[in-house]
Specification:
five-stranded mixed β-sheet; Beta-lactamase; 2 domains; Penicillin-binding protein 2a (Domain 2); 18 helices; elongated; alpha+beta; five-stranded antiparallel β-sheet
């Protein structure tokens, strides 16, 4: 840097020549230098003040914006961020065929504890135990003080419980928001819905997963984020379901039964309008699976799908339909019905020792439920063809239904199929199936011979299955089922205006160690209505019923399952939009009146 001397020599010499004082030059130069230094310092100070003011303005602006944002949002509990996999929240609703809610989600809160933040652990433990009776104060206190930093207390809280916990006022008690599955209709359709629980959990969310029923079967669909806003629509009708469950529960009580099931199915689409199994449970508070004893004693047991029973004489129509399909008989063909019938060392007789023989028409074999007549028809068919037909009707495989429980409910059949099995299988003994298997097979007959695949999902078009019998054979079979109600064993099943047809089935329960109980039966009535143009199939099964209004106990399906089914039809047919068909009075019954 070039420095200017305070006393330049030229100016000094010139000042001396003129007689001036050279010291003035030095003072002037010094003043000018100080003025320049002050100007520079002033500029630097002004820049620093401007920068500091800008920093203060920015900081206070940021604080103000943040305070405004906090004031405009909903308050939440502080929580620690948790590492781990991302939790997928949200689950699609389940609705009935008319869009009414069967399962939905509800926002709730979980309660957890940050133990290091607890001020008074003994007091907190005691007050939590008072709010939640299932909790023990000593156990809570031990968990609060055993060294862990995080502790779940309750996964779900009601608003009232949450307020009570708030009033404890300890900063170590924190709440985590989450969705829970809600079933607003309680026990209604519980075995169809199944239930849900929490999967992956964090303090700020929890994953809802299906644990049983259609919730588990359709879990991927219900959890799919792309479809979370689109409800899963079932074929169930909520109003019909409630009616069926009410009538079935009353029937079980009146018939002193252990339990029961009812399935109402559309014969053209395979849609299940109602599926009821009793006893039942509340999916909002699903009980634990039993670890011992008979599974059928648990309310979780779905008798409509998981119940594998010998279904008795309801199978007789299959033997007759197959024989007509093969051209072996027609409804008026006469068959041997002379009872008892002996086949080797085996004796086949009729209920209570009746003998409907020596000959009986095929139509009367069904109306009177003749074991011997059915046995002779089965022998005409043969065991190999019989097995093929029963398999085609879906009676050898688990029902292909959208319930996880259906997969394991495989019908039981003998490993070998000698002629005696051909005979007993023709009237529903020696092999077992579920009421759902039976309903699907009856729907196949009722719709004209097109195989029915049952479904709990709403279908918008008729089902296109394979044809398993000619239409005229199916119509003749339905006509025989109608005779069972008008002239046979199901006379209590007649519902004026709805032309009910069906077949009764009474089978002694199988003992675990082999053999049959003498006083325990499973009764079934498989029905179609209206018989002149079938729209629906209804199967009602009662476990260990006994009707006691008469002088002696009665355990046959005609006295137990049939009247329950008739009442279901009487009450649900109008709900299904079916008008009663009133037959015109005979002219012989009219009386002319002159005014």
């Amino acid at each position: 840097m070039t420095r200017t001397p305070l006393r330049p020599l030229a100016r000094i010499l010139d000042a001396r020549a003129k007689g001036e004082n050279p010291e003035l030059i030095e003072r002037e130069n010094l003043r000018q230098r100080h003025d320049a230094m002050r100007e520079k310092a002033r500029g630097q100070a002004q820049f620093r003040l401007t920068l500091l003011a800008a920093c203060f303005f920015s900081a206070f602006s940021l604080i103000g914006v943040r305070m405004g944002m906090l004031a405009g949002t909903e308050a939440v509990e502080p929580r620690n961020a948790s590492a781990g996999i991302e939790i997928q929240a949200g689950r699609a609703d389940i609705v009935d065929v008319k869009g009414r809610i069967l399962a939905t989600n509800m926002m709730t809160h979980a309660l957890y504890v940050q133990t290091r933040d607890l001020i008074d652990p003994p007091r907190v433990a005691a007050e939590l135990a008072a709010i939640f009776p299932e909790l023990d104060a000593d156990t809570l206190l031990r968990r609060f003080t055993d060294g862990r930093s995080f502790l779940w207390v309750r996964k779900v809280l009601s608003p009232e419980q949450m307020q009570l916990v708030h009033e404890i006022g300890d900063p170590g008690l924190l709440f985590g928001p989450r969705e829970m599955r809600l079933y607003p209709n309680g026990t209604l359709a519980a075995h169809v819905l199944g239930g849900a629980s929490f999967g992956n959990e964090g303090v700020d969310s929890a994953e809802v997963i299906g644990t049983a029923g259609i919730e588990k079967f359709m879990d991927d669909r219900l959890r799919d984020p792309a479809q979370s806003g689109q409800p899963l629509q079932l074929s169930l009708d909520l109003t019909v379901q409630a009616t069926v469950e009410e009538v079935l529960a009353t029937g079980i009580s009146m018939m002193n039964a252990k339990g029961g099931a009812a399935i109402l199915m559309d014969v053209n689409t395979g849609e299940i309008v109602s599926l009821a199994a009793l006893p039942t449970f509340d999916p909002n508070d699903r009980p634990n699976n039993p670890t011992s004893g008979d599974p059928s004693d648990s309310p979780l047991f779905n008798r409509a799908v998981q119940g594998i029973y010998e279904l008795g004489s309801t199978f007789k129509i299959f033997a007759v339909a197959q024989a007509m399909e093969l051209g072996l008989v027609n409804p008026e063909s006469m068959v041997d019905a002379n009872a008892p019938m002996y086949w080797g060392k085996h004796k086949i007789d009729e209920f209570e020792g009746h003998n409907y023989g020596p000959l009986l028409s095929v139509s009367d074999v069904i109306a009177k439920s003749s074991n011997v007549g059915t046995a002779h028809i089965a022998l005409m068919i043969g065991g190999e063809r019989q097995q093929a037909f029963l398999k085609t009707m879906g009676l050898f495989d688990p029902a292909p239904l959208e319930l996880v429980e259906a997969k394991g409910a495989k019908p039981l059949r003998p490993a070998k199929w000698p002629e005696i099995v051909t005979i007993t299988a023709s009237y529903g003994h020696g092999m077992s199936g579920s009421p759902m298997n039976l309903a699907s097979a009856y729907a196949t007959i009722a719709n004209g011979g097109i195989k029915v695949t049952p479904t709990l999902l709403h279908r918008t078009a008729p089902m296109m299955g394979e044809r398993v019998m000619r239409e005229e054979v199916a119509l003749a079979s339905v006509a025989m089922l109608r005779r069972v109600v008008t002239d046979g064993t199901a006379s209590l099943g007649d519902v004026p205006g709805y032309a009910v047809g069906g077949k009764t089935g009474t089978a002694n329960k199988v003992k675990r160690g082999g053999g049959y109980y003498e006083d325990k039966v499973v009764n079934t009535f498989a029905s179609v209505f209206p018989a002149n143009d079938p729209k629906y199939v209804l199967v009602v099964t009662l476990d260990e019923p006994v009707e006691t209004s008469g002088p002696k106990p009665r355990r046959t399906a005609g006295w137990t399952a049939v009247p329950v089914a008739a009442e279901i039809i009487r009450r649900t047919a109008p709900l299904l939009g079916m008008r009663p068909q009133v037959e015109a009075a005979s002219l012989d019954g009219l009386t002319a009146v002159n005014n």
